[in-house]
Fold this sequence. Notes:
Layout: E1 12-17, E2 20-25, H1 36-47, E3 54-59, E4 64-66, H2 80-99, E5 104-108, E6 111-113, H3 115-121, E7 125-129, E8 133-135, H4 146-152, H5 158-167, E9 170-172, H6 173-179, E10 184-186, H7 189-201, H8 205-218, H9 223-237, H10 241-252
Helix pairs in contact: 1-2, 3-4, 8-9
Amino acid sequence: MASLPDVPDPDLQVTSDAGVLRLHLDREAKRNALSGDVLRPMLAALRDPGEARVVLITSAGERVFCAGADLVQMAPDATGLEVHEGRGLLREVVLAMRACPVPVVASVQGLCLAGGVGLVLGCDLVLAAEDAAFGLPEVDLGLWPFMVSALLGRHVSPKRAMEMMLSGRRVPAREALEMGLVSRVVGDLRADTEELVAALAAKPPVAVRLGKAAFLAAMETTLAPGLEAMQAQLSLLNTTEDAAEGVGAFLQKRTPQWKGR
């Protein structure tokens, strides 16, 4: 894949360095709400991460990670087609996260609400600050988090998911960790995030790519065919140069040099 250039954008900053493709929501005045101008470049970056080894999603400010969809898109003067297409963009972004050949990580501070929760649930790993909180307030607007619900039940129990959607309450970070919404709650979000993405960027790219795809595929199937598919992927991975390099480096007590093939 071609290397992705840094792209200046008023709503989503897309930059890359040291194997990390950084997608930074920069709409603090709008509570980092998801608009078409955020989701379209995010979708393009996820579909072609270039030479990146990991994708990191962050946002501006300290108080709100993402307040969900930009409600301007649902205002009375917006056409039904515009609203429908806007919702479709979030769907495509989540699917692109799953199809992305490298890990997608979210670093969450402050409030994460509505479609922002959907964005987080689409990621492979989620680090949350101690002050982070997650909520689905749609019911209090006479709405329902239909699209988020398709993801929520894959991460938490049905009763916990239903309680979030029916109550609209904000779930604090520690409870979100216990529920399975996030991977880890950290004391120094920025430092711990940078440590994680640097570690991920140093992992063998072939193993990561095949492993992520196989894990997600196995979640969609029953046990017997899932195990058969895993066996096939194990055999495939063992034929790669990186697998030989990893085993050889272990036996020789040296640092492996990954080739990505």
